[in-house]
Amino acid sequence: MNILDAHFVPAVDGVAYGLLLFVVAAGLSLAFGTAGVLNLSHGTLYAIGAYTGAELSDGTWGGLAVGLAAGTAAAAAAGAGLSAATIPLARRGHLAQALLTFGLALIGGNLLIEFFGADELPVRVPEALDSSVTLLGHRYPAYRLCFILMAVLLAAFGTWVLTRTRVGAAVRASADDPQMLATTGHSPRAVHTGVLAAAGALAGAAGVLGAPIIGPGAGTADTVLMLSLVVVVLGGLRSLWTTLFAAIAVGEVQTLGVSVAPDWAPYLLFAAMAAVLILRSQFTEPATSGAHGGGDGGADPVEWLRRRLSGSFKGRGSGAGDTAPVPSGAAPPGVGADKAEAGRSGGRGALPWLLRGGRADGDLASRVRQAAPLLILLGVLIALPTLLDAYTISLAGSALALGLLAVSVTILTGYAGLPTLGQTAPFAVGAYATANLADAGWTVGPVQIVVAAIAAALFSLVTGPAVIRARGTTVLMITLAIGELASAAINQLKSVTGGADGLVGFPPTQALWGGEGMVDESEVYNYALAVAVVAVAVTLLVLRSPAGKLLIGTRNAEARMRASGHPVGRYLLMAHIGAGALAGVGGSVMVTVQQYLSPADVGFEIAAFALLAAVIGGNTSVIGALIGAGLIVSTRDWVASSWPGHGHLLLGVLFVAAVYLLPRGLAGLRARSGSGGRGTAEADRPPSDHDSATAGKVAP
């Protein structure tokens, strides 16, 4: 009984917290399941309501009512504006929406701080609620009990609207069949706007009512968004009741779980989120994915790799090795006829094709045109130390580290068709491996790079099977969960990571054996550039080989690849491992450049920046990803230095501009300017979003 008494108050707090998350998550679920918008600015809508309610609160019932009305209306207006912003992206999938709404969240967060200040605002509730009541022998805040009642009433009202009114019928119809809805005289676009406005209103109302529980302040929007995403994933999109139960479970983990098992609580939520998504992807995969268990499974991967390498050296070209061959005269999907011909011509196998720059004609002018952008970029990077001051040179080194991370995202998003928001996890593994090696006295750069790459590759090998079976938005969510689990581990494993304080004070890196530790910014930059050149060269060598073409074929025509006998799962797993190793190298370079490491350097925001850099460059452009990373770092650290306190605003504008103005990235601009070939345009096509798990509807 003493145990129950000790945890009674946290348990009731968990119910209140869970109901708060339910109101927010109901709006997020409504926007995603009905309007099809993956809204990463939903936490900002909550913050709008919270700040507005706190500003208008004066300790009276009238102040609470006015704050509730104003906060709800402001968030609803923001939701309607979000509808207008996302409608042009309806045909571009959830990735573009995620980037746009994340950029809007950065802008909105900066504007809220500018208007209301950076300090947490006090919230004054009516005097009758600003007291405690006796609940089963325990004193408990009256406002929280009142909030529980209001949240239950709001849930009941929302269920009634969706099930018993014409408005609810129109909303459900818009999720099931928008064209049929249009034939009844209703405008799907108006329903779309109304749904997002209603989702914003729910978030705003939750912000006003929840401000006394989770006060408005820095980081509140991000916390609410992440927890709401967990609730939506656990509860699904088909039932408000399952969402309610999931929200209460999350609330209990956040309150009761922290008091009962503080060491495990940070992992439970995102581990559960990842597990649910993985299990769901097993049953909602397209029918062609069923071959995973056949053609991809069972064989020893080491023996398979040995046979593949042996087959390549024997001149089999891009054959499937230990699987059924592609029919004679046919190229695998995504591989051009010239490559297939190279594979069939015995002595003119894959290696001569690769040495000719991936073109059958192999003419010098073509090779020069292909190499020109890379050579120009390399020349500019080499000249930077003679043109820039020490601080800007250090920023350029940081941009190279982020660029390697962005290239790893390009491999997964553009080539493998696996859009990721968790690539900072292997990036963090490489970074912390390097920092701990340096702290232990292993300061030789090549050793740090190799160990970081191996550690990150092993991490990607372990997490890869959870990622490669999913598609579309589910990949985004699974990788987000993996990234958040890595962040939780970083904060918990203080002996290895330093926790929230990070790591600092380790010896500088030596470029080579027997050298001195690099201290001068130019030396460190030249080291980072050398590592980046080697890593990018190896990446390009692989991506422009038949293996890279097979990977593109897997993305564009997975069913045909499987029907041809190709082990698609193995291709994707090897791409995931290779991208993870490259991210680990980027993490190692970042530690060498910065000489310190904190959780913020490997958090969700960096993952979004890397994804944006890949989108800016073009889905399959390695050079474009590097340029995108440089643009992001220069905006965040260099341009923002002339306007202090507005770095997030500038980055948000960059997100929005990139999504609208560069639908195919810089590579797409170059393709339209006449660089020729349908291959470039096709390669830059965004991965399809055919995840039936996220195509649900909101129904009770």
UniProtKB/TrEMBL annotation:
Cleaved signal peptide residues: none
Entry keyword Acyltransferase: no
Transmembrane segments: 15-41, 61-87, 99-118, 142-162, 190-214, 226-252, 264-283, 371-388, 395-418, 447-468, 524-543, 571-594, 606-633, 645-663
GO cellular component, one term: plasma membrane
InterPro entries registered for this protein in UniProt: ABC_transp_permease (IPR001851), LivM-like (IPR043428)
Compartment(s) of residence: Cell membrane
Lineage: superkingdom: Bacteria
Pfam families: BPD_transp_2
Comp. bias (Low complexity): 324-337
Classification via CDD domains: TM_PBP1_LivH_like, TM_PBP1_LivM_like
A GO MF term: branched-chain amino acid transmembrane transporter activity
Location of the region described as Disordered in the Swiss-Prot/TrEMBL record: 315-344, 671-700
Keywords: Cell membrane, Membrane, Transmembrane, Transmembrane helix
Membrane-topology annotation of the record: Multi-pass membrane protein
Biased amino acid composition, Basic and acidic residues: 681-692
PANTHER family assigned: ABC TRANSPORTER ATP-BINDING PROTEIN, HIGH-AFFINITY BRANCHED-CHAIN AMINO ACID TRANSPORT SYSTEM PERMEASE
Protein name, entry field: Branched-chain amino acid ABC transporter permease
Organism listed in the record: Streptomyces niveus (Streptomyces spheroides)
